[in-house]
Amino acid sequence: MNETVVPTPDDDDVVRFSHGALGKRPSILIISARDNRRNGVPVGTAVHEKTFALCESLNYRDWSGYFAVSAYETHHEHEYNAIRNAAALIDVSPLYKYRVSGRDAAKLVDRIITRDVQKMAVGQVFYTPWCDGGGKVIDDGTVSRLEENLFRWTAADPSLRWFRQNAIGLDVSIEDISEETAALALQGPTSGRLLAKVAEADIAGLKYFRVTRGKIAGVPVEISRTGYTGDLGYEIWMRWQEATRVWDALMEGGRAFDIRPTGMLALDVARVEAGLLLIDIDFHSSKKALIEAQKYTPYEMGLGRLVTLEKGRFVGQATLAEEKRQGPARQIVGLQVDWPSVERIFEQVGLAPQVPAIASRVAVPVYARGAQVGKATSTTWSPTLKKLIALATVSREHTAPGTALEFELTVEAVRHRVPATVVETPFFNPPRKTKTPVL
After folding, report:
1. Is 102 within 8 Å of 169 (Cβ atoms)?
2. Which CATH class is domain 329-423?
3. CB atoms < 10 A from the CB of 79, how many?
4. Which pLDDT belongs to residue 40?
5. Tens digits of residue pLDDT in 234-263
6. In the chain, where does the domain assigned CATH 3.30.70.1400 lie?
């Protein structure tokens, strides 16, 4: 007997369908939130009652123990187009979120991350990795300086234990606010005008990677000009219990701006176009890696610009200083695959060229002069650029833009190699992403 688990409009419950013999109706069992957590079944986010009503496909995935919409319709095309041509509303509440406060809050953040907190103003947001003692990346995320001694920190993986281990001897408070704070990403070229209409905040003057406070539908919110799409966009942070009011205000006010609720499949295509890395796919946390080759340093991830070696002491500093001196043995780069070569291979077997509509997370070998020199970890067809692009880890001899490589392509169970060129990332980088004012 097969089972399908589908979330209900109630934030905390799911429906489990048990599929019996053909022609018989499935049995239905409502499972409580308490049972969900005990059995490892995801639960709804703060706006689940809203997303569930709109999700025609019932296509969900598990994101850190929460139901996350993969695509609202049977295909994510309209959602992707909203990101690039209008406004997309994405529920990103499953992110891990922490509040760091106290007299030594800045000292703790500076001890852990690779960037220099002394150069971080109140109202500024840092994207940053943080490393273990060997200089290997544990995670990456954003740190927002809300007040002189108050920070909000986001992470892909649970990080509370690591933060507290590094806080010994400091006058600092670290709180896990993941289940108290909801987050909505509003992304796309009309997102700025939309927010200016519905929010009581200075949206026109909000600079890239800055954060401000305001209200939406009477709900106190923090609005950061950040996102995971590589486009003009914002992330809105609010109390968990009030998130539905903010969602409704954005959806209602966004009608004139072609707003569309958007899921993870469209976001995945957009983040590859933006050259943004995904943990467990493009790199692995050093805390979860099974072998050394799965661990990455910031330099190997192409994030050397975010390492400030000359600041005060921080975790992994000595190893990173040595790696900068010698240079990383490998690096994540962008690849552009030669599309005419792909077309020819399909033509040889009598097929029209085909690429998956969704971004591929399957690692694919990359070659130079017949020898494997790396692997492509995220690959997608870019609807905006009309190109087949990938993020790939390659040895340092092959990281320079313009380097000619080969990308493995399988057609009808036969492996082929097609030309690919190393290119700079982001692949897609519109001026509106950073332009101020945005209106």
Report:
1. no
2. mainly beta
3. 26
4. 74
5. 999 999 999 999 999 999 999 999 999 999
6. 96-176
Give the tokens for residue 429: 């980088």
353-402 confidence digits (pLDDT tens): 998 889 999 999 999 999 999 999 999 999 999 999 999 999 999 999 99
Give residue-wise pLDDT tens across range 12-66. 444 443 444 444 434 333 344 434 544 678 999 999 999 999 999 999 999 999 9
The CATH architecture that domain 96-176 belongs to is 2-Layer Sandwich (3.30)
Residue type, 379: T
Q: Which tokens go with 319?
A: 């190893």
